[in-house]
Structure formats: C-alpha cells, structure tokens
Amino acid sequence: MAKKKQKRFTVEKKIEVALELIKGASLEEMSRKAGRPAHEVSQWKDLFFEHGKMGLKAKSTSDEDLAKAENKELKAKIGELVMNQELLEEKIDRLEGEKGPLAFRRSKK
C-alpha cells in the first residue's frame, strides 16, 4: 500500500485555519476542511495565540533574544547540576573514608 503524501500547509493557511477556529468554527469542521487531524489543527491555534502574546508585549523580543535567554537558563541549570554532583561525590568520599564503602557505624549510646 503506497503512503499518501501529506499536503504541506503554508503559514498563511495555518493562520487562516486558526482564525476560523477563534471566530467559532468547530474543530471537527476545520479538521475535515484542512484534511489534518484535530489535534494538529488545535495546535496551530494554540501556537497562534502563544506567539501573538509575545508580539503584544510592551518590550518585544526577537528570536535571538529568546534563544540567548534560554541559553543562559540552561547554562545556569548545568552549573547547578555540576555543583550538586561534586558535592555528592565529596560527601560519598567522606562517608566511605578509609573503612570502605559506607562503613558500618555503631550508635554512641
């Protein structure tokens, strides 16, 4: 059975579908009309809203600014994880000491 090649949608067509949904068209109707699954058509609308919010912010940010901010957050997270790992390794070394791995301790009663 040959696979049917899916039709690619332009940004303009996706916007048109998203606007129709916003105006009140049913998701099922627009899904049939576009020939795409309902979840995909719904995702187009959600993306349209999300990116529209960014465009309406007082201080608009470009994709490059967003990428820089995300990069900064990721670097901070990596630094935090590396520091936690180093602290855990140091704690393991102190606990193991010279007596071997996690030596048995007696209570001090």
Give your account of this protein's structure.
By secondary structure, the chain is an all-alpha fold. The protein folds into 2 domains: 9-58; 61-109. 68% of the residues lie in helices and 0% in strands. The chain has 4 helices and no strands. Helix 1 (11-23) packs across helix 3 and helix 2 (27-34) packs across helix 3. It starts with 10 loop residues before the first helix and ends in a 13-residue tail after the last helix. The model has no long low-confidence stretch (mean pLDDT 82).
Tag the structure with descriptive keywords.
109 residues, mainly alpha, 2 domains, 4 helices, elongated
Question: Judging from the principal axes of the Cα atoms, what is the shape?
Answer: elongated
Regarding quaternary structure, what we see is: single chain
Span of the ends, CA to CA: 78 Å
Fraction of residues in H or I helices: 55-70%
Structural class: mainly alpha
For the record, the count of structural domains works out to 2
For the residues shown, what is the average pLDDT? 82
Low-confidence stretches: none
Q: Using only CA atoms, what is the Rg?
A: 27 Å
Give the SSE layout.
Elements: H1 11-23, H2 27-34, H3 38-56, H4 63-96
Helix pairs in contact: 1-3, 2-3
